[in-house]
Amino acid sequence: MQCPKCSSSMEKVTYGGVGVDRCADCGGMWFDVGEREKLKAQKGSERIDTGDPDRGEKLNKLGRINCPVCHTQMIRMVDLKQPHIWYESCTVCHGAFFDASEFKDYKEKTMMDFFHSLMAPERE
Ligand SMILES: [Zn+2]
Ligand SMILES: [Zn+2]
Q1: N or C: which end of the chain has fewer CB within 10 A?
Q2: Cα(121) to centroid of ligand 2, in Å?
């Protein structure tokens, strides 16, 4: 698979039985449908997001990319809980591309929300 942002080749990385594609150059990560949620549920999975955050931030501005799987033009999405995370999603195969360090960000915030929900239960 070719990276949709920098055209380098992507390599398979597996963590906790979930295999995703990570770009060997820019560190962007490709998730097939459902993989992102599965990987997020794995303890320590943010460790596979090894890309350079500065590079990720630059490439994040590149919004018009084609899906590396089915070559459809992807649409830009934001994470509803974390609107500063912009990622690209394919409307045909439902894969998603995260720039370097975005997955880490996405996951860390979720852990914080989790602890927050333990500390501050909803009041009636
Ligand atoms: Zn790349
Ligand atoms: Zn696609």
Answers
A1: C
A2: 40
Dump pLDDT digits (tens) for 93-103.
999 999 999 99
pLDDT band at 123 (very low <50, low <70, confident <90, very high): low
pLDDT(117) > 80: no
Strand residues in the chain grouped as ranges (E): 10-15, 18-23, 29-31, 75-78, 86-89, 96-98
3 alpha carbon, closest ligand: 1
- Rounded to the nearest angstrom, the distance between the alpha carbon of 30 and the centre of ligand 1 is 10
What's this model's pTM, rounded to 2 decimal places?
Answer: 0.87
Q: How far is the centre of ligand 1, averaged over its atoms, from the C-alpha of 8 (Å)?
A: 5
CB atoms within 10 A of CB 100: 26
